[in-house]
Amino acid sequence: MAEILVIAAHPTLEHSRASRALLAVLPPHAPAAADRRIEVRDLYALYPDYFIDVAAEQQALAAARLVVWLHPVHWYSMPPLLKLWLDDVLAFGWAYGPGGRALHGKDLWLVASTGGDEASYRPGGHNRHTFDAFLPPYEQTARLTGMRWLPPLVLHGAHRVTEAALATHAERFRQRLHDWPRWPGLTQVEANGRVDVPADARPTPG
Fold first, then answer.
1. Is 206 inside any structural domain?
2. How far apart are CA 114 and CA 122, in angstroms?
3. Residue 116, domain CATH
4. CA 15, CA 31: separation in Å to the nearest integer?
5. In-domain check, residue 10
6. Domain limits at 24?
7. Are the beta carbons of 101 and 194 closer than 8 angstroms?
8. Which of 111, 5, 109, 6 is nearest to 62 (CA)?
9. Structural domain includes residue 97
10. What is the rounded distance in angstroms from the CA atom of residue 175 to the CA atom of residue 167?
11. What span, in angstroms and rounded, lies between the C-alpha atoms of 115 and 63?
12. Predicted confidence (pLDDT) per residue in 163-200, tens digit
């Protein structure tokens, strides 16, 4: 099993620029020796019927040390199949809550693209807030499961960036995966402590 797990989620990958460019530098498209520690799981290719193989996903996650969520931003959040993946795979008692330590100590890295350009993500822009303002649910998911939240890699205005800029972005993504965990300053990124969730925090099925 791979130590770097890329969970890719794009509902219409054939129409994507950014996600396709990033996936093109990963196995099986770029099977360089340095990529042998990377596994890519394309959720929309694996689960077109939305029936997720929870055991297979948990097995891949358990083996990984770095988990990457690669997706376009949809309505300030993640695509629906990735949200379903979270709901089903990061189960109470496995990923969090009593006994839920399967992800503790791993790294979580968001690699996202937006339709709006960078200027739209600021006060006065049509999104009204900086992009960081939309990240607390991601960061809290990392915290709840005991994963270390890494600084995201974001491409704004993905529909309009030049081919040269897109190629530079994809190479930066590839290089950072190759270099992980030897990123400059990564040792200063605070690791999340485990959050204790009471056993009675979830309703008992009736």
1. no
2. 14
3. 3.40.50.360
4. 24
5. yes
6. 4-201
7. yes
8. 5
9. yes
10. 12
11. 33
12. 999 999 999 999 999 999 888 877 767 666 667 777 77
Cβ neighbors of 96 (< 8 A, separation 6 or more) are 90, 144, 145, 146, 195, 197
Instruction: Render pLDDT for 15-36 as a digit per residue (tens, 0 to 9).
Output: 898 999 999 999 777 655 456 7
User: Cα–Cα distance between 138 and 179 in angstroms, integer?
Assistant: 23
Whole-number Å distance between alpha carbons of 79 and 154: 16
Give the position of tokens 């600021």: 122
**Calpha distance 7→171 (Å, rounded):** 18
Establish if 78 belongs to a structural domain.
Answer: yes
Provide the 3-class DSSP secondary structure of residue 203. Answer: coil
H-helix or E-strand spanning residue 61:
helix 54-63
Which residue reads 């704004």 in tokens? 156
Residue type, 13: L
pTM as predicted: 0.91
Domain count, the chain: 1
pLDDT at 34: 52
